[in-house]
């Protein structure tokens, strides 16, 4: 990618960051869901199956 | 001294400690008689060496467990982490005290260290801000540590007075930590042409602060792991019951904060459009740091937390600590002056490394002396549940 003026450079890099930020939201949600998924399984378990 | 006492004193650990301390004392004499040039490889191109990279930058980042643990317990009300507060505060206090101690070796005229605070404050300088914050935070940590000291000395009145300040000290500690953890990164924003573009970023302040959170959390896990075997007999039932819960909870915090750090790293890369450098040798080294020591531990912490795998979490804490040390070395030494010919690049002398080992040994010795005497891993019988 070639940039002739600073404005072009900022537009390009900022647009990439906006896309990245959207991806980060998905990654954060996925990481938290992955980490806590077993907790939910324990909560859903009937009382007599819990340790 | 009895024969039995002599036997217990000459353990392998004590002998190695004694050797490190003796070598360190000899180098100390050389440093203060022959000057910086006599013991270091520092020069005009590289005025900051391993004493800044390791003793100061790594020391401050890895001592972040103090403010993360105390804010989790006292500000966010997560009382289940209470047993981890005193060990974390002690590590942070010793960490910061050693930063100041090591700084005496690195500055040309150490007896003038108080000048920026009391005589000639340079209020427009970032270094002044770092110095003031570290000075105030060491004081705060010293006060936060005193309840354990007063309980040990049986000074109930003083102990109760200091305990009333806990919340205020915690708030003050978080503010000071936020300020100077980020300012240490901001110091390098002043040299954009000297640091390789992959490590230079206008976001360095944010990167240093965000990375200090997983560094602190990982150090608390690592310290607890290393202390568990030698001081098991000093740990009370409460500490041992809460230990696994602390590790699992901190692993989650470290996983999420490492993910946040990874994201800010990517934003910094995109903001300066430095993607093309990733295909170079420097890029391979950068990817090793970011993928191997940031993204991987984040994932391993998540897996360990999900599977309740304490062993995996403990190993991951070591990997994270190594990653933070690697990052601070990359910013301040490896990628610093990257465009100079190799003959002018900095590599520490054996005496510089010797002093860094000496400083760590002093810290470990102080830690051993304190935890084997004071109520750090256990609640004093007279103050049970009095927090």
Describe this structure in words.
The complex is a heterodimer of chains A (51) and B (387). Chain A has 51 residues and is mainly alpha-helical. Chain A is built from 1 helix and no strands. Chain A has one helix spanning 6-44. Chain B has 387 residues and is mostly helical. The longest helix of chain B is centred in the middle third of the chain and has 35 residues, at 237-271. Chain B starts with a helix and ends in a 16-residue tail after the last helix. Residues 1-5 of chain B have low confidence and may be disordered. Classes of the chains: A mainly alpha (51), B mainly alpha (387). Chains A and B meet through helix 1 of A and helix 12 and helix 13 of B.
Q: Helix/strand-derived class of chain B?
A: mainly alpha
Percent range for β-strand residues of chain B: under 5%
Helix percent of chain B reads: over 70%
Number of strands of chain B: 0
Whole-angstrom Rg of chain A:
21 Å
Oligomer: heterodimer
Q: Which residues of chain B sit in consecutive blocks of at least 5 with pLDDT less than 50?
A: 1-5
Write a short abstract of this structure:
The complex is a heterodimer of chains A (51) and B (387). Chain A is mostly helical and 51 residues long.
List keywords for this structure.
heterodimer, A: 51 residues, mainly alpha, rod-shaped, B: 387 residues, 15 helices, 71% helix, 0% strand, disordered N terminus
Present the secondary structure layout:
The complex is a heterodimer of chains A (51) and B (387).
Chain A: H1 6-44
Chain B: H1 3-9, H2 12-34, H3 36-39, H4 50-62, H5 65-75, H6 85-106, H7 115-118, H8 126-153, H9 156-163, H10 166-186, H11 204-228, H12 237-271, H13 281-307, H14 310-334, H15 350-371
Helix pairs in contact in B: 2-15, 4-6, 4-14, 4-15, 5-6, 5-10, 5-11, 6-8, 6-15, 8-9, 8-10, 10-11, 11-12, 11-14, 12-13, 12-14, 13-14
């Amino acid at each position: 990618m070639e940039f002739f003026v600073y404005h072009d450079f900022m537009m390009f890099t900022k647009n990439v960051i906006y896309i990245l930020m959207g991806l980060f939201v998905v990654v954060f949600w996925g990481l938290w869901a992955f980490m806590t998924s077993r907790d939910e399984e324990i909560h859903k378990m009937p009382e007599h199956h819990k340790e | 001294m009895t024969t039995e006492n002599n036997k217990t004193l000459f353990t392998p650990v004590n002998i190695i400690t004694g050797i490190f301390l003796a070598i360190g004392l000899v180098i100390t004499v050389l440093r203060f008689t022959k000057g910086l040039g006599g013991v270091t490889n520092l020069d005009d191109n590289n005025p900051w060496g391993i004493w800044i990279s390791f003793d100061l930058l790594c020391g401050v980042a890895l001592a972040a467990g103090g403010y993360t643990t105390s804010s989790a317990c006292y500000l966010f009300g997560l009382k289940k982490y209470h047993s981890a507060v005193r060990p974390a505060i002690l590590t942070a206090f010793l960490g910061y005290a050693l930063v100041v101690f090591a700084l005496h070796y690195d500055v040309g005229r150490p007896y003038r260290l108080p000048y920026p605070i009391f005589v000639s404050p340079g209020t427009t300088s970032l270094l002044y801000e770092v110095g003031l914050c570290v000075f105030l935070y060491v004081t705060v940590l010293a006060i936060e540590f005193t309840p354990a000291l007063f309980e040990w000395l049986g000074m109930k009145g003083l102990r109760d007075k200091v305990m009333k300040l806990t919340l205020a000290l915690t708030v003050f500690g978080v503010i000071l930590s936020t300020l100077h953890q980020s300012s240490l990164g901001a110091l390098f924003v002043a040299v954009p042409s000297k640091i390789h573009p992959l490590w230079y970023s206008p976001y360095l302040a944010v990167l240093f602060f965000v990375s200090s959170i997983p560094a602190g959390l990982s150090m608390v896990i690592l310290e607890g792991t290393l202390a568990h075997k030698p001081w098991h007999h000093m740990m009370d039932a409460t500490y041992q019951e809460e230990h696994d819960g602390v590790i699992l909870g901190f692993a989650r915090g470290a996983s999420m904060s490492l993910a946040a750090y990874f994201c800010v790293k990517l934003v910094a890369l995109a903001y300066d459009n430095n993607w093309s450098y990733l295909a170079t040798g420097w890029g391979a080294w950068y990817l090793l740091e970011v993928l191997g020591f940031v993204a991987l531990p984040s994932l391993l912490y998540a897996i360990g937390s999900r599977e309740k795998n304490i062993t995996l979490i403990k190993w991951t804490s070591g990997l994270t600590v190594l990653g933070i040390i690697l990052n601070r070395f990359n910013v301040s030494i490896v990628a610093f002056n990257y465009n100079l010919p190799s003959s002018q690049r900095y590599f520490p002398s054996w005496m510089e490394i010797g002093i860094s080992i000496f400083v760590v040994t002093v810290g470990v010795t102080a830690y051993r002396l304190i935890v084997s005497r004071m109520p750090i891993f256990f609640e004093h019988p007279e103050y049970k549940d009095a927090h």
